Amino acid sequence: MSEKLVDSHKYNLWKGNLEKNGLDIHGIEEVYSRRNGNGEILFSLLMTDATTPEGDKIPPICFLKGEVVCVLICFIEKETREKFLLLVRQRRICDGSLTYEHPAGMLDSESDAASVAAREVFEETGISIPKEELVELNKDPFFPSTGTSDEAMYLFYSEIELTSEQIASYHNQTQGLISDHEFITTHVVPFTEGHKLITNVNGILLDYMYLKHVEDWELMKKI
User: Fold this and answer.
1) CA distances from 196 to 101, 185, 188, 204, 207 (A)
2) Weakly modelled stretches of the chain, pLDDT under 50
3) DSSP sequence for 144-160
4) Nearest 5°: phi and psi at 23?
5) CA–CA dist 91, 156 (Å, integer)
6) Exposed, middle or buried: residue 146 (CB in 10 Å: 0-12, 13-18, 19+)?
7) Which pTM was predicted?
8) 182, 162, 156: which is closest to 73 by C-alpha?
């Protein structure tokens, strides 16, 4: 049975935030919604009629996506201590090109961001990481596209020490869920080179936040 938009977690989270921040909502039109295999709302295109506390009309279009996670996986070679990024490569609708990204995914109706992050890493890279080994970089969500979307992002990282042979074994592996239209190939690359491949702003931000958190100032200078 298909979930109704008004019953979905992400819709009520978004609408509740609007009301909490003082918006007077006059009407919300569901233009289009896509659901997963269980009938749950994945995302929706909405037209919103709402007035701000200042008495202004807010721009009406919202791409409803909800909360998401993004995870930086850093391999550290045991002997040389060189750092490598484990990225996922796939084509994206932004321009149709092959993009290089950190593993990521949507929370949907779940509330434990770390658990979702660990699951997404496994589905997209084949690496099983306990959620307790994921380091959370932001308690409050970041909004990558405030003008058109409610997308709220939580960022994590994990450092994994491996031999050079083990690191190489994760390169160019086919991953992803075909049912979710995911056609993913893993891509292992030295950190500085991987950073240059990333074109999405949340991925670039995550690189810098990770390096700041671990205080790797030398590597930060190089990127």
Assistant:
1) 11, 18, 13, 9, 11
2) 178-179
3) TTTTTB--EEEEEEEEE
4) -80, 140
5) 23
6) exposed
7) 0.91
8) 156
